[in-house]
Write a structure and sequence with these properties.
Helix content: 55-70%
Largest sheet: 4 strands, mixed
Number of strands: 4
Order of helices and strands: HHHHHHHHHHEEEHEHH
Strand content: 5-15%
Structural class: mainly alpha
């Protein structure tokens, strides 16, 4: 009973997902769109670089915007209200607005693509777009609302809002005296101060969000790695699918060995001589002067196979000779179907000469 319980416990342990995912499992998850990705990182990049673009192109945008108002008020205000004039006005305004905000849009798109590429590389899959009914399951949705992931997302939001609130508060407090004097300042200075303060807050908040997003990405990588962990049994099953069942592969190799042994035994009757150890090694040699440049090993084996070779040779009248050093050397250095190496020519030639001499006397 205790042994049964131990076996059951080991089976349960083997199903626990404690092992890191294999490369194949990671690739399959990636093809399904299951990757470690922080949605906060591209958003933080867009915010920071958008405000940075405002800072770099602020003068250009100001000149274009002033030019748009000046052109509208100077050139079109006194024109007759006709369809053609309205169309021309809107075309010119649309073109000017496009020139003003176009660079910001391009930078935002490029940064968004870059933020995703840095996390997951190039990935094109339609798997996440496929309809899955468990996504609209209310029970599953309720579980996600009260899951650990939802709690972590809530804490992240609270942390971000707290940090942003602190940054905004400290920045405004530092400019308190200047803000109190705004009512006495010209409109142009108020606009410049507001613009400068907004850019400063945007850059600070964007940089802070990038730092928080990097930590979030590290957490997402940890969670993703945890979600695709495998049990020992999963790894074994994957190995069987990719490499084949070891038992089946063993049976296939055993069958191949038997077939190779059978073919080798069929070649022994064609041999001229079998050189033995006498019991542990047996090597069958054939030489056809018209077709071969050197004697060739057509069969070899040890122990049981050596015994079978000697038996087949005996049944077919093949001469067997005992030569321990030569039998060992041939078995170790020459594979089946290979010619005898030059350093063994002399020894093998003497054996063949003796065999041919015996065959001549017998004839």
């Amino acid at each position: 009973m205790a042994q049964f319980r131990l076996k059951l416990n080991l089976q349960l342990f083997s199903q626990e997902k404690t092992e890191e995912a294999t490369p194949k499992k990671k690739q399959e998850s990636r093809q399904k769109g299951q990757v470690a990705k922080s949605m906060d990182l591209p958003a933080a990049f867009i915010l920071f670089f958008s405000f940075l673009s405002f800072s770099l192109f602020g003068a250009f945008m100001k000149d274009r915007l002033f030019g748009l108002f000046q052109s509208t008020l100077h050139d079109f205000l006194l024109l007759n209200l006709t369809a053609d004039n309205v169309i021309v006005l809107f075309e010119k305004m649309a073109l000017q607005l496009l020139l003003i905000v176009g660079p910001i849009f391009l930078i935002a798109v490029a940064v968004a693509v870059l933020g995703n590429y840095l996390q997951i590389g190039f990935l094109l899959t339609g798997e996440p777009l496929m309809m899955k009914f468990n996504k609209i399951n209310p029970i599953q949705g309720a579980k996600q609302l009260f899951s650990m992931r939802a709690l972590v997302d809530f804490l992240k939001s609270v942390l971000k809002m707290s940090i942003i609130g602190i940054v905004v508060y400290t920045t405004l407090v530092a400019q308190k005296d200047y803000i109190l004097r705004l009512a006495q300042m010209p409109l142009e200075e108020i606009a410049l101060f507001t613009w400068s303060l907004t850019l400063s807050l945007g850059l600070k908040i964007g940089l802070i969000l990038i730092i928080l997003a990097i930590f979030d990405y590290m957490y997402q990588r940890y969670e993703h790695g945890k979600s695709i962990r495998m049990s020992k049994q999963d790894i074994k099953d994957e190995y069987k699918k990719t490499e084949g069942d070891p038992l089946i592969k063993g049976k296939i190799r055993e069958k191949q060995r038997r077939m190779a042994l059978q073919r080798m035994m069929q070649e022994i009757p064609k041999a001229d001589v079998v050189i033995t150890n006498p019991t542990h090694f047996a090597v069958a040699i054939k030489y056809d002067a018209g077709q071969m440049q050197a004697p060739t090993v057509i069969a070899k084996g040890t122990d049981y196979i050596a015994l079978k070779i000697r038996q087949v040779a005996k049944d077919n009248g093949i001469i067997t000779m005992e030569n321990k050093p030569l039998a060992r050397a041939l078995y170790a250095q020459v594979e089946i179907g290979e010619s005898i190496p030059a350093d063994m020519f002399q020894a093998v030639a003497e054996v063949l000469a003796y065999v041919y001499k015996l065959k001549g006397k017998a004839n």
